[in-house]
Write a structure and sequence with these properties.
Length: about 280
């Protein structure tokens, strides 16, 4: 059997991805900072899925987890860097601790996981690392400066690593960046009342299972970067291309995002969201 490892897999998108990988026949190691919650998630999946505590900020622990997947499953075919944290707030008001936390988990965590997986995959000659980024990796939404900085770093590392693998003739090791719009997961489900989190509600609200399908599709058709949905990627890149326009449009975009967020709150309260 082939092995896979997912970080931050105790719930939300990570669990949905682990489910799809397991259904695909992979032996999946679900890891999370919260080891007990990861254990519960692995039991829910059943079969050959198993769990372990893993803090992605710890490079040595990431390497040990990669070795463990290989030992237990026989190979490490897929590694998904999914663990992440979002601490919204005005750039000039957030503190050093908040910035460090986002950079260490979202950027360094992705770097640690990618390197741990690539080390094993180079020996095996093949494999796929999938890094869950965000549309905030392509543009900086209002009030998400620290989060966007950490996600921009993660995209740069993803694409840079892919280029270096190709330069070195390692054509059968793939590295992909996945940039989804807002996802209805514990990360934002508790933030319908928080105006600082409005940008997460500005486009299409995705369900974890929808994103997980796209992640699985990447295994059959590896690509350097995908945005979900695709049209939001185009819109985001347009804002990135014209920063002066983006700054001028920001109050309008933010007001629209806030309206959508309030609409979501009403839908949740009336039982109309999330879909059964
Ligand atoms: N929810 C969204 O709107 C959204 C949108 C785009 C991208 N993303 C990204 O998707 C990924 C999954 O997020 P989610 O929405 O499922 O959020 P989530 O909060 O439900 O899940 C994140 C998981 O990461 C774990 N985690 C946190 N710090 C960790 C660490 N140091 N080491 C290991 N695990 C750690 C948490 O315990 C949690 O289980 C994240 O990278 C997030 O940035 C989320």
């Amino acid at each position: 059997m082939s092995g896979a490892l997912v970080t931050g897999a105790a719930g939300g998108l990570g669990l949905a991805i682990a489910r799809r990988l397991a259904a695909r026949g992979l032996s999946v190691q679900l890891t999370d900072l919260d080891g007990a919650a990861a254990e519960k998630a692995a039991q829910e999946i059943g079969g050959s899925a198993w769990a372990a505590a893993l803090d992605v900020r710890d490079a040595a622990a990431c390497r040990a987890a990669a070795a463990e997947t290989e030992r237990r499953a026989g190979s490490l075919e897929v590694w998904v860097n999914n663990a992440g944290i979002l601490l919204p707030g005005l750039a000039h008001e957030q503190n050093d601790t908040e910035y460090r936390a986002m950079l260490e988990v979202n950027a360094m965590g992705t770097i640690n996981g990618t390197l741990a997986a690539v080390e094993r995959m180079r020996r095996a000659g093949s494999g796929h690392v999938i890094n869950i980024i965000s549309l905030a990796g392509l543009v900086a939404p209002a009030g998400y400066a620290g989060y966007a900085a950490s996600k921009h770093a993660a995209i740069a590392f993803t694409l840079g690593t892919l280029t270096d693998l190709r330069r070195s003739g390692l054509d059968r090791i793939h590295v992909s960046a996945v940039c989804p719009d807002g996802i209805w997961s514990p990360m934002i489900a508790g933030k319908v009342d928080d105006p600082a989190a409005a940008p997460s509600f500005s486009g299409k609200m995705l369900l974890p299972a929808e994103v997980a399908i796209r992640v699985e599709e990447l295994l059959g058709r590896p690509r350097p970067l995908i945005t979900i949905p695709r049209w939001r990627g185009g819109m985001t890149r347009l804002l990135d291309l014209f920063p002066s326009l983006a700054v001028r449009l920001m109050p309008l975009l933010l007001a629209d995002a806030r309206r959508r967020q309030q609409r979501f709150k009403r839908r949740v309260e009336s039982g109309d969201w999330p879909p059964a």
